[in-house]
């Protein structure tokens, strides 16, 4: 242990902890050797291993462990939600591997796309990811005490004419679980039946609220981008007493290196397949994560196998951009015009002196772009009658805040995630910025322009 003066940091050794009984301090690895489930000798790398002896009261589950040397999460500070964040990052990594396979089939017209009642799209990946994440969280934290708020329901899957669709979801889920051990996660002893998959999806029926713990999941955020072979995200957050306390964004088509952004997407995907897993091009997309109060956000490459890749050794700390001049700033806005006013944001951009063309991006990748310094501003002003949902923002908001940025409504108020599935009480729109100077300019511009708008 190293002790420094009050003007310096104090480094303490990491102490293995047991949270909510889902991990024991010691367990046996695949070879039967006793290992610490928290890696006490590695204070700066927090991870988890799970074996059949490491979870109490679940004899029907076969434990499959990841290597103790390859941890999914890297950070320099210990936090209250380390265990939960470890599980969340692993679950999102696994979900992203599923999405990449389904997206390839969609691009080749070998997969089904459905329309929901609100005319938005839903795919096999949406239901499959929801089932996977629901099962993993329930397995790690106990299905009896877990609350999950998520976008999809099972209405379309349980119709008589949806037999083939349900079969495709079940097959995709079980195919994904075949790879679970690569991410240090357990898989079912036997393939899940259709009823078990429907149960896992249906378990995500919480309405959230101001008390207790609630996981918030958007299984495929930006479904339109997903079906077009473009940007999308898997977003997972945890609410505690109405506040977001951790967030994870998996962005399979958003490369680690900014230089890749200038390449056409199809060329990027081709080069991704040709590059080696250890390539310094960091081509494979990224996962970004943070927890409340730490003041850090981290990014690492997506991988198809944590046991073969260096995992958290490639993670790097990310910070928002230091750009304060509006003329040099890049701003993001949604691609879709149905629930966002491009004309109003264009007026705001002009009034504060933004000169660059807007970067229109599907999904919460917009939040990722600001958190890692690729853009400085995200604005969204919804059309009258549209209500923002918490799963579209929770993970991204926390990540930007911990990376040093600001996210509020147009009145300068923090977003309130304690009202249920909607961001009720939202003042006009959402403004996310890399810093206070740009944020203040946009808040004032929104006030000045609002009365003359048609929103």
SSE diagram, text form:
Layout: E1 26-28, E2 34-36, E3 45-46, E4 61-62, E5 73-74, H1 82-107, E6 113-115, E7 121-123, H2 124-141, E8 148-150, H3 163-177, E9 187-188, H4 194-202, E10 213-221, H5 223-227, E11 233-240, E12 243-251, H6 265-274, E13 286-291, E14 297-301, E15 316-318, E16 331-333, H7 342-352, E17 359-360, H8 365-371, E18 377-381, H9 394-402, E19 406-409, E20 429-433, H10 436-450
Parallel strand pairs: 8-10, 16-17, 16-18
Antiparallel strand pairs: 1-2, 3-5, 4-9, 6-7, 10-11, 11-12, 12-13, 13-14, 14-15, 18-20, 19-20
Helix pairs in contact: 1-2, 1-3, 2-3, 2-4, 7-10, 8-9
Can you put this structure into words, describing what you see?
The structure is a single chain. The protein has 455 residues and is an alpha+beta fold. Helices cover 27% and strands 18% of the residues. The strands form six sheets. A seven-stranded mixed beta sheet has the order 8-10-11-12-13-14-15, with helices on both faces. The chain has a five-stranded mixed beta sheet with strand order 17-16-18-20-19, sandwiched between helices. It has a two-stranded antiparallel ribbon with strand order 1-2. A hairpin with a 5-residue loop joins strand 6 and strand 7. Helix 1 (82-107) runs antiparallel to helix 2, helix 2 (124-141) crosses helix 3 (163-177) and helix 8 runs parallel beside helix 9.
